[in-house]
Amino acid sequence: MKKKDLPSSLNTERAVLGCMLSNKENLLICLDVLEKDDFFFEVNQILFESIKKTIQSGHPADLHVVANVLKSDNLLEAIGGIPALAELCQFSSMSHYVEEYCCILRDKRILRNIISKSSHASDKAYKDPADCIGLLDEIQKDFCSIATSTDKSVGMTVGDVIQGKHSEKGI
């Protein structure tokens, strides 16, 4: 599947980055719940990582400091320069909704992961494997990895059920 067809929201990504640059509380919320892969567009991944690097080095993540970090890493032009950073400031008025925006980005990442793993599963199934149960178990583990990366709960695989293993909850 083409990358452009995958679920994403450019405006939501930009809103989150703008909120991060304009408000320390929003910055901390976003850093707590988001990761690089929650951003679909490479430019926004670069910006997120630069903001994170700025904070981790003990500096405030405002427009000026982040621009300097990007410049020192030779990434400022890759993200569109100072004008692109300044454009993000227009989203600062939307900061009351940053938690909702973070949820949207997380959901888009989950959908991209589902699509990717479904495509992989389909490719393997078309190869007509001899061990269908093993394939089903592998596919289930792949899909469970999406859930565990989002919610740290763990479930049983089809192989566990067939082999008569029981969960800790007695299922």
C-alpha termini separation: 38 Å
Number of helices, counting only DSSP H or I runs of 4 residues or more: 8
Shape: elongated
> Beta-strand percentage?
under 5%
Tell me the series of helices and strands, N- to C-terminal: HHHHHHHH
Largest β sheet strand count, sense and barrel closure: none
Helical content, roughly?
55-70%
Radius of gyration: 20 Å
**Structural class, please?**
mainly alpha
Q: Please count the beta strands (DSSP E, at least 2 residues each).
A: 0
The low-confidence runs, each spanning 5 or more residues with pLDDT under 50, are 167-171
Return the average pLDDT rounded to an integer.
Answer: 87
What does this structure look like?
The protein has 171 residues and is mostly helical. The chain contains 8 helices and no strands. It has helices at residues 10-22, 24-33, 42-56, 63-72, 81-88, 98-126, 132-150, 158-162. Helix 1 (10-22) runs parallel beside helix 3, helix 3 packs across helix 4 and helix 6 (98-126) packs antiparallel against helix 7 (132-150). It starts with 9 loop residues before the first helix and ends in a 9-residue tail after the last helix. The relative contact order is 0.13. The model is unreliable at 167-171 (pLDDT under 50).
TL;DR of this structure?
The protein is an all-alpha fold. The chain is built from eight helices and no strands.
Secondary structure layout:
Blueprint: H1 10-22, H2 24-33, H3 42-56, H4 63-72, H5 81-88, H6 98-126, H7 132-150, H8 158-162
